[in-house]
From TrEMBL:
Transmembrane segments: none
GO terms assigned for molecular function: phosphatidylinositol transfer activity
The organism of origin for this protein: Salix udensis
InterPro entries the UniProt entry points to: CRAL-TRIO_dom, CRAL-TRIO_dom_sf, CRAL/TRIO_N_dom, CRAL/TRIO_N_dom_sf, PI_Transfer_CRAL-TRIO
Name of protein: CRAL-TRIO domain-containing protein
Top-level taxon in the UniProt lineage: Eukaryota
Record-linked Pfam families: CRAL_TRIO (PF00650), CRAL_TRIO_N (PF03765)
Ranges where the CRAL-TRIO domain occurs: 80-244
């Protein structure tokens, strides 16, 4: 009984200390406005603190770099019609099922690489990361990645620089958003690529990357620990099916573009979608003063 009380007390003290750190980080950031203010929720600040081992100064520097990146890259302003051509083969898509913890699942199929423009590849991935975050359930902060290597080879390989840029964006600007990345049945030739790419990963991200081989029992059990096999597509050893329909997926993404516009106060973007340029039939709302960019 006493042990339980001590354990509970320690846990409460730990939570209290974390909240103090969140308050310290918010004070260190100073006044925020517009999208920066909306982005910097307590949960957001907590993710950056975790990524920097609760060091307020380091978390502040990291978060400020993200705010600069978001002000320039403007990920919340990317519309599906701008990146839809990248998704024609279904190389990256949001799954219609969740993992056992109820997290959004992002499916990557590098063997279906269909373009060579690095900038568009990155914008497409960033769009779907933002979309996955938009579709997280209440209380969820992270997503799971399933990476299917069927058909992967050097002929469809993403250049090292593009891979590094994507990793840097994920690590530096979406800290603690990744729960796990399951690399399913990568071919031997991938080992050479991985030897280079792994050096771009920070220790926290590296620990979340798991290699899965369908003929290894421990790999099968690992997949079962994260997913219900009835929902999991057979490409990943489950009983479900993965049939990417680009037209249907595009329809869902256009609907989500409207939700994104409402969330960020991007009424001009919402009107653009509603005009039919993206194929959505949505009536625009009256346009109040738009939130200023950070």
């Amino acid at each position: 009984m006493f042990r339980r009380k001590n354990s509970q007390s320690q846990q409460e003290n730990g939570i209290a200390e974390q909240e103090v750190k969140v308050s310290e980080l918010r004070a260190a950031l100073g006044p925020l406005s517009g999208r920066s203010l909306k982005y910097c929720t307590d949960a957001c600040l907590r993710r950056y603190l975790i990524a920097r081992n609760w060091n307020v100064d380091k978390a502040k520097k990291m978060l400020e770099e993200t705010l600069k990146w978001r002000a320039t890259f403007k990920p919340e302003e990317i519309c599906w019609d701008e990146v839809a051509h990248e998704g024609e083969t279904g190389k990256v898509s949001r799954a219609d099922f969740h993992d056992r913890s109820g997290r959004t699942v992002l499916i990557l199929r590098p063997g279906k690489q269909n373009t060579t423009c690095a900038e568009d590849n990155i914008r497409h991935l960033v769009y779907l990361i933002e979309n996955s975050i938009l579709n997280l359930a209440d209380g969820q902060e992270q997503m799971s990645w399933l990476i299917d290597f069927t058909g992967w080879g050097l002929s469809v390989n993403v250049p090292i620089k593009t891979a590094r840029d994507c990793i840097n964006i994920l690590q530096n600007h979406y800290p603690e958003r990744l729960a796990v990345a399951l690399l399913y049945n990568p071919p031997r030739i991938f080992e050479a690529f991985w030897k280079i790419v792994k050096y771009f990963l920070d220790p926290l991200t590296f620990q979340k990357v798991k290699f899965v081989y369908p003929k290894k029992e421990e790999s099968v059990e690992l997949m079962k620990s994260f997913f219900d096999v009835d929902n999991l597509p057979n490409e990943f050893g489950g009983k479900g099916s993965l049939n990417y329909d680009h037209e249907e997926f595009s329809r869902l993404m256009v609907q989500d573009d409207v939700k994104t516009a409402k969330f960020w106060g991007l009424y001009e973007k919402q009107s653009h979608i509603a005009s039919g340029q993206s194929g959505a039939q949505v009536a625009p709302e009256p346009a109040p003063l738009a939130l200023p960019a950070s």
